[in-house]
Amino acid sequence: MTLRLMTAILSLGLLTATSAWAAPTVGQPAPAFRALDTRGQPVQLSDFRGKHVVLEWVNPGCPFVRKHYGGNMQATQQSATDRGVVWLTISSTEPASADYKKPADLGAWMASQKARATATLMDDDGKVGRAYGARTTPHMYVIDPQGTLVYAGAIDSRPTARVSDIEGATNYVRQALDELLAGKPVSTPVTQAYGCSIKYMNAG
Fold first, then answer.
1. How many of the other CB atoms lie within 10 Å of CB of 148?
2. Which pTM value belongs to this model?
3. Cβ-contact 66, 150 below 8 angstroms
4. Where is the secretion signal located (predicted)?
5. Does domain 28-197 bear CATH number 3.65.10.10?
6. d(Cα 154, Cα 20) in Å, to the nearest integer?
7. pLDDT digits over 117-174, tens only?
8. 75-132 pLDDT, tens per residue?
9. CA-to-CA distance for 166 and 152, rounded, in angstroms?
């Protein structure tokens, strides 16, 4: 097999994967899902119909996640949940990855960080992450009470792993929730997510 042919095959595979993982469109219904939390309890999106919901993809081994868990993510979570917003943190890291944490370990890590998420969900097979087109940790989504996806993208406007860059950054999730809870449309509904690539289980 020639190098050119191999390159063409790989490119086709990448395009196919990209198409298969196409993110849902903001303004359309958020994909339904069901997953177990770190305590083994089932959680499904439909449980929270009528509420605003935030989805956050997490990997404790990622420096971008650690940047925001220096206090920024917890403060954003608390600001949301104090106002009745449901916050679901999701791990789509495959069990074979060195970054994988078992449910009890991930739950303990969240507790050690004083996280304010409503629930932390295990997505070992990556079905939830793929349904949303989640690619990085963190990757953030906001769903309105009607079940419509109204925000998708980054936690904030400074795509670095430096804690010092949090100050002065626009927190897109907080901004979106502030606007929604005030009865306004989300002014910045889509941004480019940044962080570590999610280590998905091989779909093949």
1. 13
2. 0.89
3. no
4. 1-22
5. no
6. 21
7. 999 999 999 999 999 999 999 999 999 999 999 999 999 999 999 999 999 999 999 9
8. 999 999 999 999 999 999 999 999 999 999 999 999 999 999 999 999 999 999 999 9
9. 19
Residue 97, classified by CB atoms within 10 Å of its CB into exposed (0-12), middle (13-18) or buried (19+), is middle
Residue with tokens 């990209």: 18
Gyration radius of the chain's alpha carbons: 17
Strands 140-143 and 136-137: unpaired
CB-based contact 161:64 (threshold 8 Å):
yes
As a whole number of angstroms, the distance between CA 66 and CA 183 comes to 32
Identify whether 189 is preceded by a cis peptide bond (ω within 30 of 0).
Answer: no
Taking the CB of residue 170, how many other CB atoms lie within 10 A of it?
13
Of 146, 162, 144, 142, the closest CA to residue 154 belongs to 142
Beta strands in the chain (DSSP E): 34-37, 42-44, 53-57, 86-91, 119-122, 136-137, 140-143, 149-153, 196-197
The DSSP result for 72-87, as a single string, is HHHHHHHHHHTTT-EE
**Where would I find the H helices in 23-158?**
63-68, 72-81, 103-112, 127-132
**């997505």: which residue's tokens?**
123
